[in-house]
């Protein structure tokens, strides 16, 4: 598995996932930039994603849904807040209703993704920041940590195709 660590920090209100890949940062960057690649790993294997919109620029928006084993669809959105290709991506990630409109029941998560050369490949660090301890604990309870580890574990197969 490519995920080498995960760490929940209730003082900093963050969840950090670190993964390493045997490809250069520009190739790993493409799994975020290309919506067809992104939907092959965003979400755990049993909840594949479909990106209906992916405006990959600062201020751009992504709209997606993940489909569960029973056909249930969970909608989400991104608002991209920073891009420094191929090194850094930041976005807000939230839940949406069936029409793709953001919901307010659960606050969005701010995600910061850093790609850096490491040992001939890439180290990818994903830091998810939460609105409060309750928000962090609720997302962990909903399976976010395990889901992200499973999702990021699918990236190696995509990199092997290029």
From TrEMBL:
Lineage: Bacteria, Bacillati, Actinomycetota, Actinomycetes, Pseudonocardiales
Family according to the record: Belongs to the AHA1 family.
The protein's name in its UniProt record: Uncharacterized protein YndB with AHSA1/START domain
Domain Activator of Hsp90 ATPase homologue 1/2-like C-terminal: 23-159
Species this protein is from: Amycolatopsis thermophila
SUPFAM superfamilies, per database record: Bet v1-like
Superkingdom per UniProt: Bacteria
InterPro entries: ASHA1/2-like_C, START-like_dom_sf
